[in-house]
Amino acid sequence: SGNVSSSLLFAARNSSVRTMGEIDAIHASTNGTIGHLRFQTRHGDALAERMRIASDGNVGIGRSTPTNAKLEVTHSSATVPAGHFRNTSGSGDSPALIVQGGANNAGGNLQVKDYAGNVDFQVGGDGSVGIGTELPSTGYGGAIANVKLALRGAGAGGNNGTATLLIGGDTNHL
Predict the structure, then answer these.
(1) Tell me, what's the pLDDT at 161?
(2) What is the pLDDT of residue 60?
(3) How many whole angstroms separate alpha carbon 151 and alpha carbon 163?
């Protein structure tokens, strides 16, 4: 949305003079105090937006309104993932991905959610892990202290709790 104020065009070098890519500066307010950068590439006969840097610094890849995080990647494919991190070094021990939460983060530092937004896997700021459930420190009403790993399977009709494994609490439960 908004009006394009200026563009940088990348044209093909052959005789068909066609724009292969484009970066647009877009007015996002009527007084010119808010602007975005839109990146487009050609696939076939049309240019399509691939990435946007919003005025607040949020970056959207496959999303023109990145509002949920500083980097938001959206992709619609049944066979191609929205992201892939890979360290191709043949030596050393450098990780492919590091996730670091904020100071005093009592919630999840890392979450994996299903399509509906339910948490499938979560690592808490205290190192606790919840698989198929919320973080162990919050998911059992405080009845079980010091749990570091909680695994909960889904029962019939969505009834959670049919396969629960707790490790690292005052007593191990199975």
Answers:
(1) 46
(2) 94
(3) 8
Cα–Cα dist 129/113, whole Å? 14
Q: Which residues contact 36 (CB under 8 A, 6 or more apart)?
A: 2, 25, 26, 28, 52, 53, 54, 55
| pLDDT tens digits, 6-31 | 999 998 877 566 889 999 999 888 88
Residue with tokens 């839109």: 38
Judge contact between 166 and 147, C-beta under 8 A: yes
Portion of the chain with pLDDT greater than 70, in percent: 71
Beta strands in the chain (DSSP E): 3-11, 19-27, 35-43, 46-53, 59-61, 71-73, 108-113, 119-124, 129-131, 149-154, 160-167
Kindly report the backbone phi and psi dihedral angles of residue 161, in degrees, each rounded to the nearest multiple of 5, phi listed first: 110, 0
- Identify the pLDDT of residue 81: 85
Burial 22-43 (b: 16+ CB within 10 A, else e): bebebbeeeeeeebbebbbeee
